[in-house]
Amino acid sequence: MANPRQYPSETLALKLWAVTAALAILTSILFVPITWAATRETVLHNFGDGANDGSTPSAGLILDAAGDLYGTTSYGGPDNLGTVFKLTPKADGDWTEKVLYSFNQTGGSYPEAGLILDAAGDLYGTTYQGGTHGQGTAFELTPQADGSWKEKVLHSFNITDGANPEAGLIFDAAGNLYGTTDQGGTYGFGTAFELTPQGDGGWTEKVLHSFNFNETDGANPEAGLIFDGAGNLYGTTNGSGTGSVGTVFELTSKADGSWKEKVLYSFDGSDGSNPEAGLILDRAGDLYGTTSSGGSDNLGTVFKLALKADGDWTEKVLYSFNETDGAYPEAGLILDASGNLYGTTVGGGTNGDGTVFELTPEGGGSWTEKVLHNFNGMDGFAPYAGLTFDTAGNLYGTNTGGGTHNDGTAFELTP
What we know:
mainly beta, four-stranded antiparallel β-sheet, disordered N terminus
């Protein structure tokens, strides 16, 4: 079956500080300093291991308090419409994979985004297609007493209120969910939305902003949202803005319950273009992200946005990729306690199959890039997703392809 995103077949090139409720477990900032003098990569699971297993994971992983990993695959399962899976560490150091749910069109299909956990252990996410109108869903998975998981569709998108969500969800402190859709809305170029739980168990969706393809707005948000401490939302769009190649935006709630969008920065190609990933915030309130192309070699960039005293934002390219050290970063970043940034590139590196990289701040405002791992196909290739830390400083992620069955891998990188 054709991929709904139509990933290119050759280079795969053109194709968090995620905020959840306080008890939701999603590690995107590590508070323990780590030194990566050498690394060891371990494949935790090779997808495509049987007819019911998932394949082609394009989203990252999350950890629960017990150290189990959860994620999604865009394909696989009995109907080849994607799965939700769990990876559990065993005493001997291996990991066991269990498919928690296989999608079936009615409940959604082709999940491209990662998951979040609530305090009760329920999982939440989105599907790119499927649902009542075929335009994607927001869903909840609840563990049952017999070990199975029950899916509930919280919302089926209908084009008017958004279509084809490629990004995951975040919680606010009240338990409301927020996210984006790549398409749909008033102008057809995507939306930012809020889902509010109701007393009867249902959820109400509200469009916070409909994006438009023009110089004063962004278009087609492919990444999720983050909150700052004041409750403002931040995200990226893959297109439009003054340079027509993407923006960084802010959404601010108003007294009447509506939200106001402000474009903080428009990319122009030289400083990056077509951001497909979300943003993270550091303790100073600066924003960090990636662009999938653009920069000095048109292979993508890592950038920083810093707030100025006059309320404007200044963008700085921290690094431009050059093929040898990676190419086309499509995923977001994570931070450690020393202020180092970590991420992945879809292509480039020693074998052309993608990399895991670290960016370290140096004196004078410069940054040094270090490749922590070069994928080689056998251990996976084309990591479209970002990374997750555990408390020991190990990194976890996924590859969309490669591995034993050529259906992707889940991996661990140990310093």
